[in-house]
Amino acid sequence: MLNQSSTLQVPTSNRIPKHIAIIMDGNGRWAQNRNLPRTSGHVKGVQSVRNAVEFCIKFGVSNLTIYAFSSENWRRPQNEVNLLMKLFKKVLTNEVSKLHKNNIRLRIIGDRTAFTNDIQTLMQKAEELTQNNSTLCVNICANYGGRWDILNAINNLIKHNNYKFNTEPIKEEDLAPFIALNDIPEPDLCIRTGGEYRLSNFLLWQTAYSELYFTNKFWPDMKVSDFEEALKDFQSRERRFGMTSDQV
After folding, report:
1. Which residue among 29, 121, 151, 207 is the one 20 to 30 A from 197 at the CA level?
2. Is 237 labelled as part of a ligand binding site?
3. Which SUPFAM superfamilies match (predicted)?
C-alpha cells in the first residue's frame, strides 16, 4: 500500500498532526478542464482518497476526516448527485475490505436519514466490521454540515437533560460531548484543495484552532507528495492557542 518515496525529513512525533481534515474540492473543474463530464472527476478523486490514507499511515497520523458530501451538495444537478450516490455505494462495497485488511477504522459522520436504506445498511456494516481497527481512523463526512452538527449537538443536549435546564447558562464543556468526533483530537491541520479559501460549513466547531492549508491543485491531482508539502508547511508554523510565543 505504501509505495511512494518521500523526500520529507520526519521530525519528532509532536510535529506530526494527530488529526488531519480535508475538504476535497475541484473534482468537477478537473473534469471540465479535460472536456470530461463533471462526474469523471469524482471517480478519479477516489484515488486521491487512497493517497491521503497512504500518507497518513506513512507518517503516523491517527485520524483522517474527509468532506465527501455536504448537506448543501443535494442542490447539485440530479445526475451528479445520482453518480455520487452510486460512487459512495461502490466505495462502501469494494473498499471497506481493503481498509479492514490494513487495520483501518471507518466511520461515517452526518445525517444518514437522507440516504437510501441500502446505503445506510452498508454504512452500518462498514463501521461494525472495522470498529476495532487501530492503525488509522478514517471519518467520512456525508450529508454533513458544521451548522447541522452544532444544532444536532444542542438538540441532543436538550434530550439528554430531559428539557430541564438550571438557571446557569450552557457552557462549552456541556455541549462538546455531543459534537461529532468528540472522542478524538480536534484537527491539527485542515487542507482544502481546488483554490478556494473557505471552510464551506465543514467542522466549524472542531477547526477553531486548526492550521489551514490551501492549495490550487484540484483534488484528483493530489498525490502523496502533495500531502507531504502540506505537512511541511504545518511543521513550519507556531501554534500558540491564544498564548504568546514565549509561553509556548
Report:
1. 151
2. no
3. Undecaprenyl diphosphate synthase (SSF64005)
